């Protein structure tokens, strides 16, 4: 695994989330209090952008059908609904985050 610089801490003074394009993969970097989480931005159900989702505690809820994911573990905590039927959704990928001084790195499998 290699760590790639994706942002600077000072960027998060004004915003609490950032969408990163890494070699064609969208990664969502979120700051909750002083903890940073990095997850795949695309919902595994039908590709909803979690960047545009609803953030509650340590979870993000997909803006398309409402599936919820734990930002730390990537696990599904709530299945969303399409019409009245619960969707079948998989966990999202998470990435380790490392802070060095003012720089934020994400661990990527190489
Ligand atoms: S696209 Fe995310 S729950 Fe359907």
TrEMBL record:
Q: Cross-referenced PROSITE patterns, in alphabetical order? A: RIESKE (PS51296)
Gene3D superfamilies documented for this protein: Rieske [2Fe-2S] iron-sulphur domain (2.102.10.10)
Which superkingdom, per the lineage? Bacteria
| Domain Rieske, residue spans | 4-106
- Pfam families the UniProt entry points to: Rieske (PF00355)
Molecular functions (GO terms): 2 iron, 2 sulfur cluster binding; metal ion binding; monooxygenase activity; oxidoreductase activity, acting on paired donors, with incorporation or reduction of molecular oxygen
Q: Which InterPro entries match?
A: Rieske_2Fe-2S, Rieske_2Fe-2S_sf
The name of this protein is Ferredoxin subunit of nitrite reductase
Organism the protein comes from: Flexilinea flocculi
